Amino acid sequence: MSASRVLVLNSGSSSVKYQLLDMRDSSRLAAGLVERIGEQSSRLKHTPLATGGGPREWTGPIADHDAALKAVAEELSKDGLGLDSPELVAIGHRVVHGGKTFTEPTVIDETVLAEIERLIPVAPLHNPANLTGIRTARALRPDLPQVAVFDTAFHTTMPESAARYAIDVETADAHRIRRYGFHGTSHAYVSRATAKLLGKAPEDVNVIVLHLGNGASASAVRGGRCVDTSMGLTPLEGLVMGTRSGDTDPAVIFHLARVGKMSIDEIDTLLNKKSGLVGLCGDNDMREIRRRIDEGDEQAELAFDIYIHRLKKYIGAYYAVLGTVDAIAFTAGVGENAAPVREAAVAGLETLGLAVDRDRNAVRSDEPRLISPADARVKVAVVPTDEELEIATQTYALVARH
After folding, report:
1. What is the percent of the chain with per-residue pLDDT over 90, rounded to a whole number?
2. What is the pLDDT of residues 195-207, one digit of tens each?
3. Is 151 designated active site?
4. Euclidean distance between CA atoms 214 and 334, whole angstroms
5. Based on the number of CB atoms within 10 Å of its own CB, is 306 exposed (0-12), middle (13-18) or buried (19 or more)?
6. Residue of 22, 79, 109, 151 marked active site
7. pLDDT, position 402
């Protein structure tokens, strides 16, 4: 296959993130973001990485995703990288929810679009935006293969014992209620990169991956296959996050409805947007929380302690699920940059073979690295995630096979 470029699109409800990669060497040719789509103050930031030029910014009204992608195409054309280039082999789309149907990257056709649309009830915030981006890109380049890479796909290897909730089976099946998991492209990339860091093949390594950003999730990966993950039917389950509560007693919802007289929509907003770190202390930026702790803020310290307590519970649980653990990998914004989080998460777990070397942990780097002592039984790693590269790699491999 002579053409080697893949455009990766991540379409949100009011934004489009994009990267253009050359898969001959996985180099980035361009990257950018369109945000506040539908507003008068829409903004496009484009960085032409191939030419080494500085970023270009444009502010003004961008009515919809169709206009946004046309603006992206125009910026790429200015660098000789337009969507009409014969070097462009495919467009890869991030799609949040693929349900049980999509277990691997999939070439998009009308049947695939219909199934993504059918899954909107379990991903009402994400799948509609993903669909809009796909339809717009297909209209711009109807001749080009378009590939959907699903956040949930990596987690479809979970056994039923991990994926099922303990509720009436007929009710669960009728409404597609089960644990799907999210951040799958990140967990897939980081688990493989961790194996490479250890000098082993993915199938020979058991890894606990901790994707800690504003959204946060953990996964247990045995021999390259996910066997459990912390997010569930939606991204609300699991770890304490920036604005999401993570695990709560389901009866909290009944209590808030009956006693607090809150509507379902109000409870949804509370648990998804007004909980987690921001609900506990008013901040969801870990840097700001650590600054407040250093100044003696007890509320910020309690929020941090709750965050770490939940994280430790999942490390211990996934250690038990895997039986043998070769490494724990921290990734995403908090995982890659917050040394105090990494240190606190494994503190006291020395009997499990876990420890962090303080000097190694303090090093800032964009490269995968070990932060555990040299003789540690279980390696602790920091592995920067690269979801765009993962989407591009899966897209290119699929198109090459066909």
Report:
1. 81
2. 999 999 999 999 9
3. yes
4. 8
5. middle
6. 151
7. 76
| The pLDDT value given to residue 1 | 56
Span 250-288, pLDDT tens digits: 999 999 999 999 999 999 999 999 999 999 999 999 999
As a whole number, mean pLDDT of residues 173-187 equals 94
SS (H, E, C) the chain: CCCCEEEEEEECCCEEEEEEEECCCCEEEEEEEEECCCCCCCEEEEECCCCCCCCEEEECCCCCHHHHHHHHHHHHHHCCCCCCCCCEEEEEEEECCCCCCCCCCEECCHHHHHHHHHCHHHCCCCHHHHHHHHHHHHHHCCCCCEEEEECCHHHHHCCHHHHCCCCCHHHHHHCCCCCCCCCHHHHHHHHHHHHHHCCCCHHHCEEEEEEECCCEEEEEEECCEEEEECCCCCCCCCCCCCCCCCCCCCHHHHHHHHCCCCCHHHHHHHHHHCCHHHHHHCCCCHHHHHHHHHCCCHHHHHHHHHHHHHHHHHHHHHHHHHCCCCEEEEEHHHHHHCHHHHHHHHCCCHHHCCCCCHHHHHCCCCCCEECCCCCCCCEEEECCCCHHHHHHHHHHHHHHHC
d(CA 178, CA 200) in angstroms, rounded, equals: 33
Burial of 164 (0-12, 13-18, 19+ CB in 10 A): middle
CA distance 385 to 277: 22
